[in-house]
Structures are given as structure tokens and as C-alpha cells.
Amino acid sequence: MTEARLVEDLLAFIAAGEADEEAFNRMALAVFAHQFETNAPYRRFATQRARTLRTVKSWRDVPAVPISAFKDLTLSGRPPEECPHVFMTSGTTKGVRGKSHHPTLAVYDRSMTVNFRRRFMGDFERLRMGILFPTEQAMPNSSLAHYLALARSEFGTADSRYFVSDAGLDVDGAVEELSRAEATGEPYALLGASFSVVHLMDALAERGRRFALPAGSRILDTGGFKGQSREMAAEEFYGRLSAAFGVPRRLCINMYGMTELSTQFYDDGNEACPSVKSGPHWIRSRVINPLTGQEVPRGSTGVLVHHDLAHFNCASAILTEDAGVEVEGGFQLLGRADGADAKGCSMAVEDFLKAARAP
Amino acid sequence: MERAGHLPGLSADAVDWRTLTFRRGAETLDVAVPVLTEAQIAEVATRVRTNARACLKNRTVAEIAAVIDRAVARLLDRNGPWRQKAERLLPLVTGYDAEMVRLGLTGYLKTFRGPELRKFLAEDFANPAVLDDFQPMPKGGFARAFGPELLLHVWAGNVPGLPLWSLISGLLVKAGTVGKLPSAEPLFAGWFAQILAEIDPELAGCIAIVWWRGGDETTERAWLARADTVVAYGGNDALEAIRARVPVTARFLPYGHKISFAMVARSALDAAKAGAVARQAAYDVARYDQQGCYSPQTVFVERGGRVSPREFAGYLAHELDAIGSKFPRRSLSMAEAGSVASWRNAEETKGFADPSRALLGDPAGSWAVAYTDAADGLLPCGLNRTVTVVAVDRLADAVPGLAPYRAFLQTVGIAAAPEELFALAGALGAVGVTRLCALGRMTAPEAGWHHDGRFNLLDLVTMTEIEGSAERAADAFAPYTD
């Protein structure tokens, strides 16, 4: 199947609105076949695990690539130089960034918009937005920058704006916008990286400012804290968030996405933490024991594997480093599944690398 | 419910207890750990100090060692109640295989018998009597060594019995002792104090074994403020946090996390010897599932022997598999499994780019050996029985690459001929390695080991010197003076 045909099929699959096990399976096998044929490193990876076009019969058999592999391998069906869009992870302890190549963003963008409308916009066609993240121009390799730019262009009003630039967080601008929303009663949407939201809340607390945003206003945060601002437990974070902006916790929505995916997960607000995350019909998740690759019994903690049909050019099945548990209606995220607290006095990888880089 | 700690002079009813629950499969153990108020902390600290002044300082070091010896003997007695309790509960608390714990305890405790304690003393003091009384000094005059009145140990980790090392060191220098139990193994140190209390209640009154939640700044400060000397174990972040709270007048002795490795020379790689060498190396990897600072994470193997480094990796894999069926690895938390998996995944991925690399492992993930031809140098593995075999032309070639990690190097388990051993030892010592031992012995340091190259006892004491001038001047004031 050609790439163009696959893209067409995927767009139709998304448009179909739902997919049963059989339909998902059929599409997943087509995507796997495409990746196996066009993506040499992925083919080697799959073959090593004895997963070939002949042996893979179900989407569950498709071998999941550990996200760390995106740092070492070029996982792209099309030669990288033919891919105008490259999303990169934000750097890691090892200083190597994982890359996802996109020959076209048609599927990525459709995946994002269809899902975003359903999970974040409620009954609104457009909302006035404030974005707590740099622009796409400032961060051309950030999938989150692209995601937020898309949110603004497709779902934001014309006067939606960014509050993060080279100069840092524009607290004055945010205060002005939020005050305006309060005064006019026009529902407002605040979107951005979780750590920027923490910065803004800290800045507002310093000024003693609180807002009561109009009914229908909502907040989207994503990404966790990545050491960029002080860690906050989810419970405390959403409690503060709701209090600082006057937005009910059911409209404080967390998006869980990754550079190595073309589809995002959302919760239905954070009245209770940890919230339940779920994705649309073109992505499915499994919870496995990372050592054996076997699915853990439902309700047990394991590591998340996502199978995202929209990530057609790279590897649609990925093994994350996120711990999770399957629950009714989706899964709960339980933090990262590595960097275990050292039990003894033996040095662990992260500490070692950190120590080795210290001056 | 097992009660942890040892609180001289405080009745159990007067103390708040918190429960730590340990689960292994169907078995559960609740351990109650003491949570002291600030007033109780002050009370216990004062009592330990006063008791130490009254009791320990008036005992000879030989008398103290004799009591320790009797306590250790009780723990070595397999029919004794303490030993049976330890064999039953430590595997449950730490998750380590019961047989591994049993063997490990015996090997470890043996290093604290009477004659071994004399080795500890002799390692640090040319004349251990200096701990009892003023002794003549070569430069003239006299000197006596005094241990701290209050020595605080902040222990960490789950390797069974590890706190004993510094606890006994402190007692040998007659220090009033407060030890903070590690949450991962909160039993052993308290048991030892309780055994001492059975044998010699007066001496046990100089020891308190306490607990606080890691990161409980208020409690930690309260203890630190009262200590003369602080010995602390843990990662550098934890140690840094403690150091910031230690009074500037107190001595701070940190023991950070370390990395160790093994070296196999071609002289050990003939068909007759390589198997045994691999078995010993595998034992070092498997013991305590690599949680110890002395556990090897990399094995440098020299090319040019009858058995190639690649073949040696195969031997090592075979031995790890065999050990695994005898002493299964403890079951891992999801976070630990994640660490092992991400290490394995990364090694496997590197193999796609570089076919000289290989990853040997069992499908259940209970051990793994990575092999590389590349000049990779020292790299931490995923722990829990994972190790990298790095092929080198000459073992000495591996040494320069170690230099950046000077502050973190500890033990090298080595299989090499005598001349090679001494030649390498010089180079390794120069880059920061502090201990060389035989393969198979990495996780069992000998009595009197200078932990991280430091002096177990000497670091704890201060010397009080009577200078020659005082002695000579005193003559003038003697009743018999002319």
C-alpha cells in the first residue's frame, strides 16, 4: 500500500467515528505492514522479536518500540530528508533527543482536531484562549508547540494570545486578559505546559491575585513538571488551579501526549486524582510487565503501551516509561516507571550520568 | 507486629508508633517504628550522652569488644531465637531470597567476632590501648583517643545488617550512639541493640535506635543539632540535604552511592579457569541483587585469552541463569522492573546500530548480560542482575576512562596474575578505586575494611595530647622536686 493510500485510509478511519476490535485490527495490520516494509530499523526490531507480516495476526502482536529507541534509531518510513516536520523530545539526561519524522501532518492534525473538539471544547465552536507555552515559530521541533498552535488556529478566537516568549512568562499580560474575561463574562480557555501553569499561579499568589473566570471557562495543562518548577502532587495542583482561576475541577483537563505519538489522551476533568485518561477510537493502550512484555491482570500496575494508528510513519506501537493501571473507561497514570528509588548504595544510571556531567 | 528500634529509658507506651507494612506474595509483616516528639528526642539524646559518659568511657575497648562478640555469637547461632527471627523476617522485609540472606548473614557477622574486632582496631590504631588511656607517642608526650559523646548514624538501604558496620565502629571508640533505621530494612540494628541489652543492659543504655520519615526535616534537624559526629549513608542529593543541616561544629562523614566493577585478565581465561571465574563474577552480580555499592555493574574482559570476551559473556550468562534457579531474584517493584527493562531495551536498540553488541537474557527478564566490543568504558547497568561485559585489548586500557568517575569508584573484583594485579592496582588506586578483591568476594569485605578508603575508627575520634612540655613542666611541681 502506498503512503498516500494509507493516509487516505487513516483519515477515513478517523472520520468513521468509531471502530470495533475487528476494524481496529484490520487498520492496525495495514499500518504495521507499511511500517515493516518501509522502515528498515523497525523491521530489524520486529524480526528480532519474531514478529513479521506472517506472525502478527492481531494489533496486540505488533511489537512495541521502547521510546528510548527513538533516540538511537531513525524510525521513519520515508527518508528523514523527505520529512518536512520533525518533532523532538525536550532532551533527556543523556542529552540525546528522540525524533519523530512526519512526511505530512494531515493525519496528525486531523487526529488532534477531531479529538480536541470532543474532549476539550464542550459546546463551544471557538473560545478566547491564553497559551502558556512558546509559539510554533519559537519551537519548531516541539510537538506541543504545534498542538497548541493548532488549538489556537482551529478553536481559538482571533484575539487569543500567547503569554510565553523569549522574555519569559508575561504575567502582566495574563493578568490583563484574565481580568478582561472576568469583566466581560466571556468564557476563557487557558492552555499550556503544567510547569508554566505553576509559574503563573506562583506569580499570581505573590501578587495576591485570584480570578473567578466566567462559567464555561476551562483549563488544559499537559506535560507534568520535568524539574522546571517545583513538583506538585496532582491533588494539590488541581486544588490550587481551581482556586486561582475559579474554574471547577471538572473543567481542569489534563492532556497526556508524547512526541512519539500523533494522538493525545484526555481526562474528563480532575475532580478526583488520579483521573482516568482515554483516547479516541484510533488509539488503544495496554498495560504490560515491562520485563516480560506480558499484559498484567486488569487492575494491576504496569507500564503503558500505546498503539496509535495515526503515528503511521514511525512506529505506531510504543512502549512508554509511564506506569499505569487499566480502569473502567481508560487508564490511570501513576508516574514514571523508572528511576526507582535506590534500595541500596549501588549507583543507579540517572545518578551516575548526573554526577558525571557535574563540573 | 514487630516492634523496631531501641529507646533506652522510654517506655513503649509513651511513644507514638507508625506502621510500615512489608508484603511478599501472600505474606505480610507490619513493623512498628517509633516516632519521637522533640521533647523525647532531647530526653533520649541526653540519656545516651550521660550513659556513655558514665559507662562506656570507663570500660576498656577489650571489654566492649567482648560484649559485641557475645552479641554477634547469638546472631550466628542458628538455633538461637534472634537468628531464627532474622532468618524468618529479613527475607520478608527485604525481598531477598531466604537462603541468600542466611548465607549472607553468616558471612557478614563472622567479620565481627572477637578476633576480627581486634583487626578493626589494629587497622586504625598502632596501639589500640590509646582508646583506653594515654599512651606514649613517638614524638614525645602522650596521647589518648576519644570517640564522640554522641554519634548519629543515618542509615539507608535494604542490604540486611549493613548498619552494623558503623554501629560497631562507634561502640569500639566508646561513642554514645543514636542510629536512624533505614525504612527499607528497619529491624536489624534494633535487634542488635536489644541483644546487647540482654547481655549488658548498661552498655545498651548508651545506644538508641530511632526512626524518622526520610525528608522529615524537623526531626532530622533536632537529631543533627545534638550530634557531635554524623555518619550518613545515601545518594548525594540526600547527603547534601543532611550536610546542610549538620552544625558546623559537628564532624560529618558521608558515605555516598558508589559503583564497582570487575576485571578479568587473559591469564584467567583458559578453558580450565574461565568457568570458575565466571561463576564467581556471577555470584558477585547476583548477591543482594546488585544493591550494594560493592556490586559489579561492568566486567572488563581482556582479549587474547583462550576464552574470548564474547565467550566469557556467554559463560557469565550461563552462571547467572544457574544462580537464578538456586537463589531467585527478589520480585521487583514496577519502578525497578522499569529500570531493568529500559536498560535492556536500550542495549537491544544499540545492537541494531552496532552488530558487535549482543544482549543475552532470559525471557522472564530475571537476569541479562550485555556484551560490547566498543570502547564503552564503565557504565551503570539496570541493577537487579544486569551486567555489561566490555572487551578490551588490555585491562589497563580501561583505566583512563574511569578518571571522570573518581568520586564514585569503589571496589574492583579482579582475576589476574600477581604482576598484573599489582600493576593494575597502582593505576586503579590513582583514579580513585579504594578496594581490590578476588572475584566472588566483592560483596563480602574483610574485617577492618577501610570503607570507601576511609578509616572506620580513626575518622571518629579526636586525639587529646599531653605535650612533652607539660610533662616536663609538671616535674617542677612534684612534691619530690628538689
From TrEMBL, chain A:
<dbReference type="GO" id="GO:0016874">
    <property type="term" value="F:ligase activity"/>
</dbReference>
<dbReference type="Pfam" id="PF04443">
    <property type="entry name" value="LuxE"/>
</dbReference>
<dbReference type="InterPro" id="IPR007534">
    <property type="entry name" value="LuxE"/>
</dbReference>
<dbReference type="InterPro" id="IPR042099">
    <property type="entry name" value="ANL_N_sf"/>
</dbReference>
<keyword id="KW-0436">Ligase</keyword>
<feature type="domain" description="Acyl-protein synthetase LuxE">
    <location>
        <begin position="16"/>
        <end position="351"/>
    </location>
</feature>
<protein>
    <submittedName>
        <fullName>Long-chain fatty acid--CoA ligase</fullName>
    </submittedName>
</protein>
